Amino acid sequence: MSHSPKILIADDEPRFCESLRLLLDGHGYDIHTSTSGREAQALLSKHQFDMALLDLAIPDVDGLELMDYINLHCPDTSVVVITGNSSLDAAVSAIRKGAYDYIRKPFAYEELLTTIQNALNQKKLELEKNEIHKKLELSEDRYRYLVQNSPDIIYTLDSHGCFTFVSDSVERILGVESSHLIGKHYEYIIHRDDLEKAKWTFNERRTGDRSTAWIEFRLKSFMGDEEEITCEVKNICIELKCTGMYEKQAPGRNETFLGTHGVARDISSRKRLETQLQQAQKLESLGTLAGGIAHDFNNLLMVIRGHVSLMFMENTCSNSTHKRLNKIEDCVQSAAALTSQLLGFARGGKYHTEPINLNSSLRQTSQMFGRTKKEIVILEHYEKKIWPVEADRGQIEQVLLNLYVNAFHAMPEGGSLLLATENVSLGKSSERPFNLASGNYVKLSVTDTGIGMDEKTQQRIFEPFFTTKEMGRGTGLGLASAYGIIKNHKGMIEVKSKIGTGTTFVIYLPASEQEVKNNEIAYDSILKGIETILLVDDEDKILDVQRDLLSSLGYTVLVATNGKQAIKIFDTNPDKIDIVVLDMIMPGMGGGEIYDALRKIKPDVKVLLCSGYSEAGQASEILLRGCTGFIQKPFNASELSEKLREIIDKSG
Ligand SMILES: Nc1ncnc2c1ncn2[C@@H]1O[C@H](COP(=O)(O)OP(=O)(O)OP(=O)(O)O)[C@@H](O)[C@H]1O
Ligand SMILES: [Mg+2]
Question: Domain boundary at 266, 281, 298, which?
Fold first, then answer.
């Protein structure tokens, strides 16, 4: 204590008081004396005493009453009772009331000094203890606040693996109250597929002072009624850091394992995003592969189809050859349908986009489908003033039919198919599915009451050639092409499904500002012409068949097998050549570069681009630069003749 300890002496004998004052003054104490109880009370109410030396047999106020007063009003004042032989009982009562000690008259001064010093020391220790206790409480409060307000789950387990503490965040993350977990084994909340990993992690903590950083586990979710089903549908994925707790022993003895403590962070949404990204990247690379294959196949099919068209046009073959040619044409058409689906998946199949009304597409396709599948009840729930979407009608119908056929296969005993549309405005990123750009969308959903799919199947359905159908029943291209088509329309398709309950496919397509028009064009006649065409393609087989096709349509054909040659020919006859039929992908100079060079020679040159890829991507860029038209391989004579006339007859 830095100040002189303040001591109150209360004794009815003034001389005794005085002699004590003289003695204690000399030892550095600050002494106040009183010869009656009232006087003592008045001093106590005025000063803060470190100690009171009380004679219990004091006038006015009983000594024990004075003790009560001190206990109530001056709890930090230590009391030593001075007593004669006769009042020993009162001294004992005073000690019961909290006096530090008593001292009997007559006493030796040394005894008094020692007792005073001891009492003051003890008081000092008590005060320090209280101070430490307060600090401890404060720090505990602070830690409790931090732990309970942490977004992570903070916990301790005993040496058997039972919870001794879990922070409240567990309720938000798992849907179970922290108090419910106390005393329960950690296995209670671990997903069954991760139990072994959890056991290993926990047991390893016994073997030394180790900790594990950010190991991943799946936990059960207790949200909803049926715990098991919810677990299947919604796993909670956490990242865990845990450390063993040990009691320190004397050197040379093993430490005792007390349990573990750890922090678990919910990383479910990060995981979901990672999976979505991986899925999208996988589909992207499969798309590149599928697109490449489809392109090469289309070139081969072009040659076959061209020759078949020529043979038909020559009209010299016998009846049976005619039949065989028809069969070849059929096969080529099926093969072309397959490559077109592959191209659809490869996001290369956006041909003619126009503002369309999705309600009409759903109505028309579902009527057509419903006519043949009577066992399926079709329910429709459409947005009344649906926004138009800019889309390829044929492709969207292809997507819808794929979804209906899948639904039909999922409902072998019959069931219902709910078709719904809705206008939606996607705003803040947290509300947008799959990071679609913000804006207006039309949301279309196709829901069946069929067999549903497990999570593993759902993760793979958009992959090309993924099918659960038996050999010959499905190619596994339906949803792959649907995925590509919707992505190509800057939309998104997703699936929600539960085994035994059914499946919903949800499609978002960006809304368009344009109005819906009706313009159906039919192509089935062969139109001839007399103009001059420059045909540019690097593949001899294609060049041959196309030259023959064009000649038989009446055109004069000039050919070039590469860009340089094409430019040279065009440069010498710019006014004689009415149209250039230009392959888009060629070694050296590609279609785009050739187009630009031709335009320099004749700015209004008419060019029909053709490719085994589709109009999206490179071709659409060239078209945007002013190129007149596009046709996708493999085409037949009638399609080519239509396209040529459309371009040649266009004024300007
Ligand atoms: N509505 C649905 N209900 C249950 N499972 C479905 C549903 N739609 C698709 N699937 C599953 O997704 C798989 C892939 O579908 P996808 O349409 O891509 O190919 P497919 O129907 O098997 O063959 P394809 O459409 O090429 O003839 C199906 O084999 C099936 O397992
Ligand atoms: Mg299908």
Answer: 266
Strand 353-356 and strand 389-392: the pairing is antiparallel
Nearest Cα to Cα of residue 355 among 235, 418, 442, 287: 442
In a domain, residue 301? The reply is: no
Q: What is the mean pLDDT of each run of 10 residues along the chain (652 residues)?
A: 83 90 91 92 93 88 87 92 76 88 87 92 90 92 90 93 94 91 93 88 70 81 55 69 80 77 89 78 80 87 89 80 85 82 67 84 86 85 92 86 92 92 80 74 95 92 87 80 88 92 95 72 62 91 88 90 93 91 88 92 90 74 81 85 86 58
Question: Which structural domain, as residue segments, surrounds residue 440?
Answer: 353-510
311 located within any domain: no
Residues 374 and 458 placed together within one structural domain of the fold: yes
CB of 469 shorter than 6 A to ligand 1: yes
Give me the number of domains the chain comprises: 4
For ligand 1, whether the C-beta of 467 sits within 6 Å is: yes
CA of 289 to the centre of ligand 2 (A): 21
Q: In DSSP terms, which residues pair with 378 in a beta bridge?
A: 417
Whole-structure pTM value: 0.54
- The response to whether residue 448 sits with its C-beta less than 6 Å from ligand 1 reads yes
What whole-number distance in Å separates Cα of residue 11 and Cα of residue 36?
7
Residue among 338, 445, 469 whose CB has most ligand 1 atoms within 8 A, to mutate: 469
CA 651 – ligand 2 centroid, Å = 44
Identify which of 345, 406, 462 to mutate to test ligand 1's pocket (most ligand atoms within 8 A of the CB).
Answer: 406
Same domain, yes or no: 536 and 490: no
Residue 66, domain CATH = 3.40.50.2300
Looking at the fold, whether 456 and 485 belong to one and the same domain comes out as yes
Q: Which of 266, 299, 327 is the last residue of a domain?
A: 266
> Coil, strand or helix: which one is 362?
helix
CATH code at 238?
3.30.450.20
CA distance 644 to 633: 14
Domain membership flag for residue 280: no
Residue 524's pLDDT is: 46
Do residues 375 and 498 both lie within one domain? yes
To 10 degrees, what angle do helices 268-314 and 319-345 make? 160
Q: How far is the CA of 418 from the centre of ligand 1 (A)?
A: 17
pLDDT at 352: 67
For the CA of 410, the nearest ligand: 1
Nearest to 276 by CA among 505, 458, 434, 426: 434
Question: 287: which residues sit within 8 A by CB, 6+ positions away?
Answer: 345, 346, 347, 484
81 C-alpha to ligand 2 centroid (Å): 99
Residues 594 and 468 in one domain: no
Spacing, Cα 477 to ligand 1 middle (Å): 8
Residue 121 and residue 30 in one domain = yes
* Nearest-ligand number for the alpha carbon of 481: 1
Q: Same structural domain for residues 493 and 541?
A: no
- pLDDT at res. 85: 62
> From ligand 2's centre to the CA of 503, what distance in Å?
13
Q: Is 406 in the pocket of ligand 1 (CB under 6 A)?
A: yes
Is residue 313 in a domain? no
Residue 26, φ and ψ in degrees, nearest 5: -60, -20
Pair 16, 110 in one domain: yes
Which of 467, 471, 493 has the most ligand 1 atoms within 8 A of CB, as the residue to mutate? 467
Distance CA 178, CA 467 (A): 44
* Closest ligand to Cα 480: 1
CB of 450 closer than 6 angstroms to any ligand 1 atom: yes
Q: Which of 76, 123, 88, 22 is nearest to 115 (CA)?
A: 123
